[in-house]
């Protein structure tokens, strides 16, 4: 199975993809748009994308791409994010003057930088990519912040492990496929969908009352601007199912209050 990811080999998305499909062939992509294009044109059988981090929040670009591509969420799972300071073999933490990583990863390690004021945080496009660059430069004064898998993949040395500020650092990932090829879980207990309401008083409340009336638990609600339509928004929602048939009832009732409704996937909630 060919799974597309955004990022270099050794990234957290790579780790998450192997957790989902240990025997998969991983297809790294530079940009998220390329990941979705690979699924759409058949280059990849599926993709693994981060959708939300417990500390940094949503990956908003991926919500937009889910809506603009004919794909469906097949499953979700959680990955514990552990950041490590990685250097070239033989160096010591006292020699490090710069640490490269993705801006989100750097932001999750503020306490480490406060305790090591001689080390400058340097933004880079990817966590694993920062390890790859470091190993190519072979500069003992440069380090990277990434996963243990990235250190192993590129031959780096972990100088200090688990340097993230908060151990409750998890990222939620989706496995997506083309909509007509996605395997639907026979016992889903969670749904992701997008909907758009009319710009009038009470329209959002009317839509939300559908979920309340069905006795479903709305676990997430987020708005995104509609491209080319200033001050209009699409709402993305996750809700839990007590019974699978409630998802069909929601799809029947929401169009009475919404100008657009699209289910993004039914799946089993990660635990």
Compact summary:
This protein is of the alpha/beta class. It has helices spanning 12-20, 32-40, 60-68, 103-107, 110-115, 127-137, 148-154, 203-214, 245-253; strands at 2-6, 25-29, 46-53, 57-58, 71-80, 84-87, 98-101, 120-123, 142-146, 157-160, 170-178, 190-197, 217-225, 233-240, 258-267.
Secondary structure layout:
Layout: E1 2-6, H1 12-20, E2 25-29, H2 32-40, E3 46-53, E4 57-58, H3 60-68, E5 71-80, E6 84-87, E7 98-101, H4 103-107, H5 110-115, E8 120-123, H6 127-137, E9 142-146, H7 148-154, E10 157-160, E11 170-178, E12 190-197, H8 203-214, E13 217-225, E14 233-240, H9 245-253, E15 258-267
Parallel strand pairs: 1-2, 1-3, 7-8, 7-9
Antiparallel strand pairs: 3-4, 3-11, 5-11, 6-9, 6-10, 12-14, 12-15, 13-14
Shape: elongated
Query: Which consecutive residue ranges, at least 5 long each, have pLDDT under 50?
Result: none
Biggest β-sheet strands, sense, barrel? 6 strands, mixed
> How many domains comprise the coordinates?
3
User: What is the CATH architecture term of the largest domain?
Assistant: 3-Layer(aba) Sandwich
Q: What structural class should be given to the helix and strand makeup?
A: alpha/beta
- Whole-Å distance between the termini? 24 Å
CATH topology of the largest domain: D-Maltodextrin-Binding Protein, domain 2
Secondary-structure element series? EHEHEEHEEEHHEHEHEEEHEEHE
Kindly state the number of beta strands.
Answer: 15
């Amino acid at each position: 199975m060919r799974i597309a990811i955004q990022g270099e080999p050794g990234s957290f998305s790579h780790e998450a993809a192997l957790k989902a499909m240990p025997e998969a062939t991983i297809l790294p992509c530079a940009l998220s748009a390329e990941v979705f294009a690979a699924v759409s044109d058949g280059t990849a059988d599926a993709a693994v994308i981060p959708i939300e981090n417990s500390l940094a929040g949503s990956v908003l670009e991926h919500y937009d791409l889910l809506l603009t591509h004919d794909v469906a969420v097949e499953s979700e799972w959680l990955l514990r994010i552990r950041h490590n300071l990685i250097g070239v073999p033989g160096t010591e933490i006292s020699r490090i003057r710069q640490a490269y990583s993705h801006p989100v990863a750097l932001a999750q390690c503020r306490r480490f930088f406060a305790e090591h004021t001689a080390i400058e945080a340097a933004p880079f496009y990817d966590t694993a990519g920062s390890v790859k660059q470091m190993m190519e430069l072979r500069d003992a004064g440069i380090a990277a912040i990434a996963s243990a898998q990235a250190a192993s993949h590129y031959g780096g040395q972990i100088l200090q492990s688990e340097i993230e500020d908060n151990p409750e650092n998890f990222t939620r990932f989706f496995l997506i496929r083309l909509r007509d090829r996605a395997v639907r879980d026979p016992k889903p207990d969670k749904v992701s969908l997008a909907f758009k309401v009319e710009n009038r008083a009470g329209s959002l409340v009317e839509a939300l009352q559908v979920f309340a009336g069905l006795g479903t638990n709305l676990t997430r609600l987020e708005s995104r601007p509609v491209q080319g339509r200033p001050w209009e928004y699409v709402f993305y929602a996750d809700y839990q199912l007590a019974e699978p048939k409630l998802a069909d009832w929601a799809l029947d009732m929401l169009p009475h209050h919404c100008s657009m409704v699209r289910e993004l996937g039914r799946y089993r909630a990660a635990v």
